[in-house]
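pasting for the record
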Amino acid sequence: MNATHLDDALREAFDSSAADRRVVVRQATDLAAVGKPEADRGVALSVDEIVDNLEDAPDGADLVDRWNWWLGALDLAYGGYQQFTVQARADDPELDT
């Protein structure tokens, strides 16, 4: 998984902040590194697959919500994807201390 290629593809496909792209790219590269999608579905995780699946998320969802929506679907189908969802954001008031 090429993080730069994924970031570029996400920037092109979605109106998103650099912080949101950064956290999704990090989660995606971690997910690809463990090989779970390949083990579960028989294909390695790719940039095109990520963008395609995120485009299927409900209209109006931001990038992080799209990522969590897709990972939720994978978790329902196969289990073990919850740890790759985004739990907090840089702009989350709970993070301001």
